[in-house]
Amino acid sequence: MNKTGLNKVFKNYINYLIIVAIMLVTIPLYFGGILNDSSFVTPNMLTQMAFTIILVMSLNMVVGFLGELSLGHAGFMYVGAYVGGILCCYLYKSGLVVQSTHRLIICMLIGGLAAAIFGFIIGLPALRLRGDYLAIVTLAFGEIVRGILKNTKIDPAEGPLAGLIKNPATGFSLNSSKGKFDGDLFIFAFIVAIVVLFCIQNLMKSKHGRAIQAIKDNEIAARTMGVNITYYKLITFTIAAFFAGVAGALFANYSVVSYAQFSYNYSIEILVMVVLGGMGSLTGSIISSVLLVFINTKLQAVLTGDLASLKYLVYALILIFMMILHSAPKLAGLREKLNWGYVSGKIKGIFGKKTKNVSIVETEVSSNEEN
Questions:
Q1: Confidence (pTM)
Q2: Rounded to whole angstroms, how far apart are CA atoms 248 and 76?
């Protein structure tokens, strides 16, 4: 394979290779009994990594590719978790869908659709608002959703949803008697992450993706060139909200669905992952999601009680370091070495150099034969 072909393969499939590499390492360890709830990396941590990858990539569509600031992405996830969790319980107890995999797929689609409807609603003011104003609107949306669902009580005396939500403040959780996914959730979640990656990556490489990025670069120029600004802003917000809802449905099968889980701080945490990974970089979104979930989980185990708030200090220091790394002129050389393009160039250089040496030898041999 020549240098151009290697570069194309590396550029197109590096995101898939990262996720597949995680699966190839963890799945044999899991079935071998080495990876368990007491190991250094747990199945629950891997599940959290998987739906966080989906969540961060979806927010990157709005912040990184479209160039709009959204601070209410956790609200879309909350809608997907709430609707998807209730639907899982209903489908199981009513006997409509017995197979847990089919049930979870249906719940992800419906939860994502519910979140997409809210994404469309939020996308409407996005047509006229930009920057801080849009951030305030999305932040308000997240708090409104939390406030409404916090006070929504579902506790019928009988029926498929009997006793599901007794106290809205504490939320609800699924278990084996309420339709929770009974398979290996982290494996399923990583497969879903690959599907979401395929959809977003191919969308951004299409003409529609180029139109979305043109809006980010210069909205006036994009409109002059015939790009439908209204359409692409709406479609971006809607698709991003849909994938956030899918991540929420996975979350409902992972942990307790409570308003406390989807606070403003969680939206900021997701935004930090997008910024750390690089605006408009799906590869960066995957890597930052995995690293920060790992760091967050370990910090929660170490920093307990009054020290728990220090976790956000660590996040702040990481963010400050990354901003300095991205902008400081004296660190330009280090930035080049940490760039994926630099790494791929080195790999291509190794293979290219070998190819070049072989061609030189062949030329010398042919010239000797002619003499």
A1: 0.84
A2: 8
